[in-house]
Amino acid sequence: MKSNKFLDAKGFACPMPVVRTKKAMEDLNSGEILEVHATDKGSKSDLTAWAKSGGHTVVQDAEEDGVFKFWIKKA
Length: 75
Known about the structure:
Elements: E1 5-9, H1 16-25, E2 33-38, H2 43-53, E3 57-64, E4 67-73
Parallel strand pairs: 1-2
Antiparallel strand pairs: 2-4, 3-4
């Protein structure tokens, strides 16, 4: 999936993937997509909940070799 910005949050534990995602989203315009890669197992539930609470949409997510990948569309 094509994204407008990429965030590498691998190696960070909760809450840093969410904190870094929130900061990265500030640079995007509404409708643009942020791709996030994280290794923290809690990222799946944390980022999904954070996106929903902010009105953003997780367009796609995947897991590959222990890396959780998210494509989040800014509200």
